[in-house]
Amino acid sequence: METYLAEGSNLAAGVDRAFIFIFAISFILTIAISVLMIYILIHFSRKKVKNPSQFSGNTKLEIAWTIIPLVIVMIMFYFGVKGFKPMRDVPPGAMKVTAIGRMWEWSFDYGNGKIAKQLVVPLNRNIRLDLFSADVNHSLFIPAFRVKEDVVPGYNNYLWFKPISKGEFDIFCSEYCGLAHSGMVTKAIVLDSLEFNKWLADLKVTGNLPDHPGLAIIKANACITCHSLDGAKIVGPSFKGLYGSKRIVVTAEGEKEVEANDEYIKRSINDPNVEVVKGFNKGLMKSYTGVIKPEDIDKIVDYFKSVIETKK
């Protein structure tokens, strides 16, 4: 609970003020209305009032129950605006990180090919997260920082914060995005400046070649939704180190070892359920025959080869 209740960012106090005020008003009104209902039920019960009188209209009461709720709602609006407006005003010079949501994981791009599975940021520095979805609607939520924004394909959204407490804080997806939505969690880790600089310097370049046409085709067909580029296990086996690797596959005749060469990659694209890598489920991937052109499949194979050659 401490992770969620802690004021982990500069924005937390404003959000908390709005929440506490609205909660307090709601609590008071709930108690008052409940007590009033119980009083009316008892005081005006049929047993006590034998000859009830009929009345209508009370101008003072009607004015009161119009003005008082209006004033309360306007105060709620004031606290809401005070808490929300700073969330959209990013200070100049904020450190930029791209947050990428895909089924079902988060990744954070620091530029120059450096991508991490956890959001690591320096203490007391303004951080801007540019939000990008590789597939469906997601929503990035860091409870301790009191920030949450939708991550929608084709929509340029962002959020920002300044972490004010060192430690680890949970990150969730708060938009239902499919089968493993509940497992789409990671951490925001706040370090001091020296620790962060060392961490970023040590963060390895993933080796992805963003300008390679084969990678563009992979992304255009949403392959990285189920196959990671960095070794992470998602729905399907990772593409990292694919070409030339040995792997155990399950076929109709049983298990066997195959080499991930040109023909294997082409078979996996056109007929993915004939040889399924051990440990993964059959039937989740459809055939891309007729969807991806043969010449584009050749480009995909060439991309996997180029990744291996780049690392040599």
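The above is record 1. Record 2 follows with the same two-line structure.
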Amino acid sequence: MGLTKYLKTAFANRWNLLAFLGGIGFAFLSGQPDVVAPIVLAGEVAYLGFLGTHPRFQKYVDAQQAKASRVDGQDAASQAAKRMLLELPGHLEQRFEALRSRCDELQQLAQQIRDPGPGGEPPPLEDLQLAGLDRLLWMYLRLLYTQHSLSQFLEKTSAEQIERDIRQLEQRLKSFTDVANDPRLQRLQKVVQENLQTSQTRLANCKKAEENHELMSLEIDRLENTIHSLSEQAVNRQEPEFISGQIDQVANSMVQTEKTMGELAFVTGLKLANEEVPPMLRIPQVSAQR
């Protein structure tokens, strides 16, 4: 797209359109459109050539597009967060809301430490601090949703039954002897071998799901304890910068867990690796919608 993007943006500017259309209209009203119209067109080309190739204008256009993309990404992530909250069972939603309340208390505490404001009221929320808490809550919600999805998967999949099927297939496979000269037996043997491979893959997936379910449970407990600890430290340290730094440190420590959640997209349906973080502290509770 390159230069075309900047030229289109420059042309679509409302003041440029007003001037250009006004000039064309004047050209026809002047009685000499063959003289005035080319002058207007030449001026428009010069304007587009100057503005469309100006580095500062190009940076402005790129910044506006990036901002629009972030807004779209945040909207998509907000809708995904609301959907996940609606799909979580009641006890998990309550668990999330309890932690969100603690995050809100932590944020308010940091604000009051920094500047209680007139009458002891906290000042407006700081974007940087909100972003850190939103990120932690977004991770926490995805952990809960991933754990819930894995629980549903494991409820429908019995590792013991798959293991029994594997043993039966192995026994069946051993029963095939002298198949070299019997095409029918060869076909049957191949079907059993393929079925055995499929069952072994299913068992491996089931075992992996059990391991990941345990990992999600441990990470959920760790994140809850960490946020509670941050609240307690905030009271003792009285340093809002310390709170923000600790929030970022916790979020950065979960990179590997986020990667694991990305690998489990086939179970959860979550494909949000590149999405913006939704405003978790400001998303309304969904209990009333159940």
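The chain has two domains: 3-53, 61-289.
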